[in-house]
Amino acid sequence: MKPTTAANPYLRNQVLSAKPEELRLMLFDGAIRFLNVGRKGLENKDYDVSYTNISKAQKIVLELSNSLNRDVMPEVTEKLSALYTFIYRLLVDASTTRETKHIDEAIRLLRYERETWAMLIEKANQQPVSSGAA
Questions:
Q1: Which tens digit of pLDDT belongs to each residue from 76-86?
Q2: At residue 6, what are phi and psi to the nearest 5 degrees?
Q3: What's the predicted TM-score (pTM) here?
Q4: Burial of residue 127, with CB atoms counted within 10 A of its CB: 0-12 exposed, 13-18 middle, 19 or more buried
């Protein structure tokens, strides 16, 4: 069975029309959603479901790390990169040990990062836009 890119046209449209900062929120949401499904798979001893969803979350965490702009605030991006590496390692551990505690910690950290990112977006949207003319 071949996956279709038009399986969810609403999601496709949402992604194509989203601003970069909104895309990052969507990545956090996707990773958390996949990890919740992966966790259920571990609980139900359905290791195919667990592996598939943890792997999807790992790919998202890699994208979060790879999309960091290391030219802007390098000390912050270095810490974020280390955090994403840690989360990725938790997911590897979850897959190999089949323990939900690793997924729980990864979800906790991703939720915190998502909340932080959402607050930053909200704060940025409240800032007046400077016209550049003085």
A1: 999 999 999 99
A2: -95, 20
A3: 0.81
A4: exposed
Measured in residues, the chain has a length of 134
Identify the residue whose tokens are 């959402």. Answer: 118
What Å distances lie between residue 120 and 62, 98, 116, 128, CA to CA?
Answer: 21, 35, 6, 14
The full set of domain ranges for the chain reads: 18-124
Distances (CA, A) of 58 to 52, 89, 122: 10, 9, 27
The two tokens of residue 130 are 């400077």
CATH number of 18-124: 1.20.120.340
Assigned token pair, 32: 């958390």
Query: Cα-flanking dihedrals φ and ψ of residue 131, to 5°?
Result: -80, -15
**Tens-place pLDDT, residues 13-35:** 665 656 778 888 999 999 999 99
Average pLDDT over the chain reads 87
Please name the residue that has the structure tokens 């590897």: 92
Residue where the block lists tokens 């810490």:
79
